[in-house]
Amino acid sequence: MSLQGGRLPAEATRFFGRSDEIAAIRGAVGRSRLVTLTGPGGVGKTRLAIHVARALDSAFPDGVFLVPLSGLRDDRLLPGTVAAALGLAGEAVPAGEAGLLPRVSGKRMLLILDTCEHLLDECAAFADRLLRGADGPRLIVTSRQALDVPGEVVYPIMPLAVPGDGGDALALFTDRVQAVMPGFRVTNANRAQVVMLCRGLDGIPLAIELAAVRIRTVGLAEMLTRLGDRLRLLGGTGGQGPGRHQTLRAMIGWSYELCSPAERLLWARLSVFAGEFGLEAAEQVCAGDGLASETLVDTLVGLVDKSIVTRVDSEVGARYRLLDTIREFGAELLADSTPYPRRHRDYFLALARAFGAAYYGGDQAGEVRRLSADHANLRLALEGFLDDGNDSADQARAGLEMATALWGFWATTSQLGEGRYWLGRMLDQVPDARGDKAICAWLGGLFMDGQLGKDDIVRMLTHLRAAVAASGDEASLAWTDGYLTLASALRGDPVGNAAAYAGVLERFTRLGDSRGLVTSSLCKAIVHLLHKELVAAIAECDQVLRRLPEGECWLRGWALWWRGFASWRAGDAATAAECYRAGVRLRRSTGCECMMGVAPFLDGMAWLAAAEGDYGRVARLQGAADGIWASAVSIPRLGMSLLNRQDELARQRARAALGQPEFERLHAAGALADPPEVLRFALAAPGPLSPARRSLTPRRSWPGRRRGRPRARNHLPPARGTC
């Protein structure tokens, strides 16, 4: 149930009742900035929160956002996860609030933090900091336990009432049965049995839905008998709290008993996944040891038919997931000594390796989209390499390799902060300074471009180089020297020159490392440009563009940017304009998810517009670019004084020509525009940009922070209703 740009997930099935709860929660959201829906698993908290949020959509012009947390295991990634759901994926991690709070302050927006109980302390701390540090945003939280934060309104979500006529519980049961048995009807002959069944299930929506699927193979009378025995064995269905948990557990346990042996095995093994997973992953991780690979697909289909596994259709094809309560049940059945968590980790290590090898290929955007679907599983696998019980040096190095192989994913999706976080943690686990550590440090420096200054990077790489040289790993030494040369050039050191880069290129050529060769060639172009060697910079960029395969969009985009900038500095504005337009078209056509890659092109177009006297266009383009840079990095334009001077010059000229109020108005229009509109405006003839009203995306401008007072904590009375 992922969310991008404020779109709430579509309702796959009908929503029943809960009118009283909906009205009460809507009122609570209007009065309080934090409303927490509590209740046992399977009671319908998530579904209700989304339904209420959809009803409140018009009240939040800056967007309604779902932040699913069930697949998140490392609480230090919470700020980055929230930022990603808001379209601010580049925020630093773990101290993401520092960049996040000013950007959401004053925004009329609603966030749903869904499934917080396993991250209760961190979610509570995050909610408290958000309420105190950013006036405007409101929160709906779903959790089995309240956050206990000042100002929190707690609304217990109770199971469905089951009156004499069955009420909404009967309606839910009937609807779900008819989905698998279209001819099913509730009649005078069977109504009493259906009501008795819903009552025996304590009106818990998930239990009712599981029971509805069973009707296809088990009659009502037999179901009542079997379920009744099961519930009596567990201590009955009366009472609150633990008794209701027993009821749901009984229903899930009975569903487990009705599964075939193969389905039971697969259910337990699938519990090692976080969030969604693909068919290939299920086959590779779960097959074997009593579960034949050739029948796994049929077994998975059986679990889907029984509503144990949910099928999710996405842009990358069919995906599958277990509801949290069902996953927990499966995990309890999986012995601690089983190999499946390790197989999960190794599968995603292999996936990361394959991604790293294919990243420079002809389907870069597709590779990124497919990997994005497994983001939660990538995190879980990386965490697996950091378990306290894992002290193998080879295993630690494998984790470092995985984090390094994913560098293109972190960069292309603007998740620089998370990439640096994993790289840093993995570096701490590697006991020596072998070559893979050097590559990781090189990439860590790359990510720091947008987070820290060049002095920090130069110090880090200088300290590392001696150890790398002693290791004898020539490839890693070439990578380290290449980035150290570029970082030195950016800092203005004389050692950062094109001659030094020529030696790096020669080493990559001799090693047959095409990736190192093309990356270093682009870095050499930047060094040429910094030394005002414009003809050489243009030639180097052209070399990069010839070497890259069609379909590669990340390095090609940067090569087009530097080619355009060098051409402009050489007096060829027409070529610069075409390079910038080609870069924007590339980002739009390939579907790359990184709007940060668009920001430099908008900068360049603004500078060209300033030279042409089109100052309204300057203000709009700079507004859009400023919003993107602010959301993705701490230091825009790579911290290069050359680029910052050009940007400030264009800004001053536009402000002087338009006047401060008009400049700010047009700048805000650019900052508030949606990405598609920004891209259209950049490629089209000059025209007005209208601000977006219904979504929050990385290019927004953000007002200064205002502080608000937390309200006293309240509890709303429990109510009964339907899912």
Description:
Mean pLDDT is 82; it is low at 1-6, 91-95, 233-242 and 690-723. Among the domains are: 19-159, 3-Layer(aba) Sandwich (Rossmann fold); 167-258. The protein is mostly helical and 723 residues long. The strands form 2 sheets. It has a 6-stranded parallel β-sheet with strand order 2-3-4-1-5-8, with helices on both faces. Strands 6-7 form a two-stranded antiparallel sheet. A hairpin with a 2-residue loop joins strand 6 and strand 7.
Explain briefly what this protein structure is.
The protein is mainly alpha-helical and 723 residues long. Helix 28 runs antiparallel to helix 29 (599-612).
Notable features of this structure?
mainly alpha, Rossmann fold, six-stranded parallel beta sheet, two-stranded antiparallel sheet, 33 helices, 59% helix, 6% strand, disordered N terminus, disordered C terminus
Low-confidence stretches: 1-6, 91-95, 233-242, 690-723
Q: Describe the sheet with the most strands.
A: 6 strands, parallel
Please provide the count of β strands: 8
Choose one word for the global shape: globular
Gyration radius (Cα, Å) is 28 Å
The quaternary state of the protein chains shown equals single chain
How many helices does DSSP assign? 33
| CATH fold group of the domain at 19-159 | Rossmann fold
The CATH architecture of the domain at 19-159: 3-Layer(aba) Sandwich
> Strands of the biggest beta sheet: in what spatial order?
2-3-4-1-5-8
Distance between the termini: 17 Å
Helix percentage: 55-70%
Q: Beta-sheet strand percentage?
A: 5-15%
Mean pLDDT: 82
SSE-based structural type: mainly alpha
Going by CATH, what is the homologous superfamily of the domain at 19-159? P-loop containing nucleotide triphosphate hydrolases
